[in-house]
Amino acid sequence: MSGTSLVTARERALAVLGGEPDDATLGRYLHGIAGVDAVGLEQRAAGLGTRSIKTSSKKWALDTIISLIDLTTLEGADTPGKVRSLVAKAMSPDPADATTPRVAAVCVYGDMVPFAIDALGGAHGDPDDGLISVAAVATAFPSGRSSLEIKLADTAEAVAAGADEIDMVIDRGAFLAGRYGLVFDQIAAVKEACRRPDGTSASLKVILETGELVTYDNVRRASWLSILAGGDFIKTSTGKVQPAATLPVTLLMLEVVRDWHLLTGQRIGVKPAGGIRASKDAIRYLVTVAETVGEEWLVPHLFRFGASSLLNDVLLQRQKMTTGHYSGPDYVTID
Amino acid sequence: MSFLEYAPAPESRAILSLRDRYGLFIDGEFVDGRGTPFQTISPSSEERIAEIANANEADVSDAVAAARRAYDRSWSRMSGRDRGKYLFRIARLVQERARELAVAESLDNGKPIKESRDVDVPLVAAWFFYYAGWADKLDHAGLGANPRSLGVAAQVIPWNFPLLMLAWKIAPALAAGNTVVLKPAETTPITALIFAEILQQADLPPGVVNIITGAGDTGATLVAHEGVDKVAFTGSTAVGRAIAKQIAGTDKKATLELGGKAANIVFDDAPIDQAIEGIVNGIFFNQGHVCCAGSRLLVQENIHDEVVERLKLRLSTLRLGDPLDKNTDIGAINSKEQLERIRELSDIGVAEGADRWSVPCEIPENGFWYAPTIFTNVQTSSRIAREEIFGPVLSVLTFRTPAEAIAKANNTPYGLSAGIWTDKGSRILAVADQLRAGVIWANTFNRFDPSSPFGGYKESGYGREGGRHGLAAYLSPAPIGQAALSRPSTRGAVETADGAAAPKARRAVRSATRSAKAATKGSKR
């Protein structure tokens, strides 16, 4: 998959904003959007969470979840060997069952990209075609506390190494201080850095780190800001801050994506990341996507789970549906 | 395959152990009715559920007499603390049998299982728990020390929340020391009859609660019975008016909870996604069979088109079908008569020039169904904007200023509830202050809590249910000069019931007596 062009993104933003994306214009726009009622949002998310997904629907859901996972390792202790192990798991999640779909992508730090690509070999490519892409976190992940130059260099290096997707973090400090213009410019600059020499572009996921934005109103504004600045995906969290992804936050981001689609016709992706460990929880996310933006969003270029331990729980559930009984943690592989 | 066509997830009916025939629950036992029995059916399939006894005049008299005996011999003499124990026991039994009650309710009423499971039954338990706590604290109900119970309460409840309305009626009445004769609606008697079994399980003294089934004439006979001290009715304004006439000039006290045509007011700064949810919950919850439903949507003119467009998108995701499927959002209309009334009023709306839009959804072959419908271009003079439809039909009107919103919201003979949607706290307070409605929700709708009083202005009835106010409806202040005396009920409990009471009743009274004595000892220490 590849990202949208920066020029169109900027033109679109200017048309929506009706002016240059500076602090004042962005502030007026973002604060002019209808507010979020926290109680109501959480009630709606809880309501969606009561859907009962059984039999054939559950089977479809489990396979879909696997095909939407960004299998992730983001540790200081990561080694090329660890990444090769992760990639092997991504390519055949359940070695005992060849019908198991592959995951969408592996997500690693920038310096691990070459090892991931090497390990993937012929399986490297667009997840919409059943292949596996490589996502790299960049821009001084997870804190984002660095100069723009370093963030851009970080991004450019990952893209040059062959990353298909860049997961960037926004400057939460600047956002909370109301410097929306700065955040916009940084996202736009990173987007520019995602461009490859051949003119195509890596897809850009913008991590809001909702756990640091705290309020739903902030999450909604940050979502709009990220989309206006050219993000192809909006992503909840780095996984390094608690709370990470929650169902209400994801619902809210999906509502923004739905509204943006109504406004411009463009489809933006959503990626909840961090804290989704059980199949049951992941199914709730699928329900929320399907009932908020529609089923057509349940494809790798519009929805992803950022997760690692989720995969094994889904595999256990999947085995249970096939064999009729639960196995145990030793019947799925560790990566 | 489409994911959104979720595979069927029906709640199992195996948990139900329904009888084929149900009698009347009088004096702690099921007895045969002397009227012609009738069948209760499931409105979603029209299948027969059970045969239900029909109480005639003699049966009503028996029930009232049993309630009177129980009042005189045990319940009014029992200490509040002991009454509370029975209520706590009932609440716990409701929780234990929650799934069974939810399935029975959805089967008999047609409401989706997710509502009976997540709303109705938990609230029923909450109501009993809440009033159980009040039973020994009546001095603080706001009527001064030593308030008196009224005697025998005749309670007639509707079919929209069969078990919940039962709890709203029975819990405060018993907590205050009254005994009860309750008549559930003709189309939804099943959960009340299961509740009677719960009362047996709880070993409630016989006659304290009597449940008689039948049609409107049974209810009228009950209300008119001279042995009744208090009438509590929830239902239509027409019947409420007839009851008020019937009991005028008697000593009977009354609480009437009648119809409504609530305004749900959406200002242009409202949290829009949550407002859409609130509108949906306001009118399509329980198929719109809610007396406090937000059936008139008043939306600020500048956001009208956006709200209607979003509402249609949202309504398209509602799932109509088998009430026992856990994913069903919209269940069946309770009866053929009600369905016809909804159709009739809806057709009148079209004839009056409003634009009708219904969710394009598949309607099951059997049973009574009505697709969620909204009317736009509705005028304040339209009948669909004035009359209670009691179905999944929303009328959308507009306003330009807060003053106009308030004027339009109040321009109805009813006044049960209202909703306000805005991000501005000061506006919520200012508007709520001027709305003539008993319940006003801000940025939410159709939320209930036992501690919150509920009731109406104008033709929506009088009296309050719920909270401390709901308790006061079943009490009267102590006679002048007696407020300072100790409560007769605690002293009376030491005397034993006479031999005429059923053996079971004596047992219950004796055990109550024992604990009352223990309580007295405790207080002397």
Automatic annotation (TrEMBL), chain A:
Pathway participation: Carbohydrate degradation; 2-deoxy-D-ribose 1-phosphate degradation; D-glyceraldehyde 3-phosphate and acetaldehyde from 2-deoxy-alpha-D-ribose 1-phosphate: step 2/2
A GO biological process held by the record: deoxyribonucleotide catabolic process
Coiled-coil stretches: none
Keyword Lyase in annotation: yes
GO cellular component, one term: cytoplasm
Enzyme class: lyase
Pfam families according to UniProt: DeoC (PF01791)
UniProt-listed Enzyme Commission number(s): 4.1.2.4
GO MF assignments: deoxyribose-phosphate aldolase activity
Catalysed conversion reaction: 2-deoxy-D-ribose 5-phosphate = D-glyceraldehyde 3-phosphate + acetaldehyde
Top-level taxon: Bacteria
Claim: Manganese is one of the keywords in the record: no
Keywords for the protein's UniProt record, in alphabetical order: Lyase, Schiff base
CDD domains: DeoC
NCBIfam families xref list: deoC
Family, similarity comment: Belongs to the DeoC/FbaB aldolase family. DeoC type 2 subfamily.
Protein name: Deoxyribose-phosphate aldolase
Automatic annotation (TrEMBL), chain B:
UniProt KW keywords: Oxidoreductase
Matches recorded under InterPro entries: Ald_DH/histidinol_DH, Ald_DH_C, Ald_DH_CS_GLU, Ald_DH_N, Aldehyde_DH_dom
Location of the Aldehyde dehydrogenase domain: 31-476
Amino acid composition bias (Low complexity), ranges on this chain: 510-525
SUPFAM superfamilies found in the cross-reference section: ALDH-like
PROSITE patterns: ALDEHYDE_DEHYDR_GLU
Region (Disordered): 483-525
Superkingdom of the source species: Bacteria
UniProt-annotated catalytic positions: 257
GO molecular function: oxidoreductase activity, acting on the aldehyde or oxo group of donors, NAD or NADP as acceptor
Family listed: Belongs to the aldehyde dehydrogenase family.
PANTHER family, sorted: ALDEHYDE DEHYDROGENASE-RELATED (PTHR11699)
Name assigned to this protein: Acyl-CoA reductase-like NAD-dependent aldehyde dehydrogenase
The organism of origin for this protein: Agromyces ramosus
